Amino acid sequence: MKERRYDIDWLRVLAILAIFLFHCTRFFDPFDWHLKNAEQSVIAFLFVAFVSSWIMPLFFLLSGVGSWYSLKSRTGGKYLVERVKRLLIPLYIVGMLILLPPQAYFDRITNQGYTGTFWELIPHYFSGLISIDSQDLHDPSFLLPIPFSGHLWFLQYLFLISLVTLPLLLYLRSEHGQVLIERLAVWCDRWGGIFLFLIPLILVLISLRSLFEGERTWADFIYYMVFFVIGYLIPADKRFTEGFKRHIWICLVLGIVAFCGVGFIIGSMGYSYPGDESFSWIYVLFQIVISTTSLCWVVFILSLGARYLNFNNKILAYGNEAVLPFYIFHQTIILLVGWFVIRWSMDILPKYLIISIVSFVLIMVLYELLVRRINIVRFFFGMRPKKRPAKEQNPH
Known about the structure:
By secondary structure, the protein is an all-alpha fold. The chain is built from 15 helices and no strands.
């Protein structure tokens, strides 16, 4: 019988809420984004910087956990079919055709000085589907071309990572793979053993970060791939989770220290990331510190979940099913609401509260009325068909 990890389900729901609040905050931090408020906030800056250090590694790790259970009841071929249904159909139908064009419009206005109308942008938007330059090759998402990826780059990456790692995932389910997993689990069950996972993370960043400029490059892709594989290992042996729980407080302390270290290094470099001088001591140190930050916070969060969230109720059942459509909807709705709110003359806090509350309500209304109850729409959002209640059988 398949054991359900309710703590993982809870963390998936809470991670979606965290990314929702994160994107509501993006109007008010000093970093580039699709829309910006005229006034920025130091608190928003700190919140965005902190969440950025662990949220996407956590997303990919949780996806890796899900892949372990998916391959427990599917062949490799059926697994890929399920990935297409769950990731590519929402990306190319709901995302590319409906939700991403408004994001591209806001981004062009804010960052490229666009002055035309939304409808005038549409032909230019779709031209991006086939135009690829050399810089695009630094981002592996060119393998799944889309005019403007917005927040749905996660679906692009997750599908590609699922595809690329499938031979390894299947190997780890084999007899030889189980032996390897057991050895890793024994190591991670020792004091300090979980930091073995730091080695591939650090090596990836040190060797690749300086080779690719910009965000979401091959360095990030392989970095996230490592977290995905770590997630895949977790349900394979209980000793991984036990090792995480044993290190909960040391990871909290190291996570705080490493996060402060990242800020100190960036500040000392004039608020820029080390990378121009490949393999300099500051470059190597930065990759070590940023990897430590990500892993420690992810392990701390997983440990909290394993300790306190391994239970089921109706809220979890509802939230777990709503996770993917909520994610697909959320950034476009936030931007549409924020487009109006950031123009108002009021302080940042009331703007943030209005954007968060109104966006959340709109997303849930759209989910309830347009997605949850209609099977064809559920299909377009990567959801399984809604089961009809069994008809009462005639006792005669």
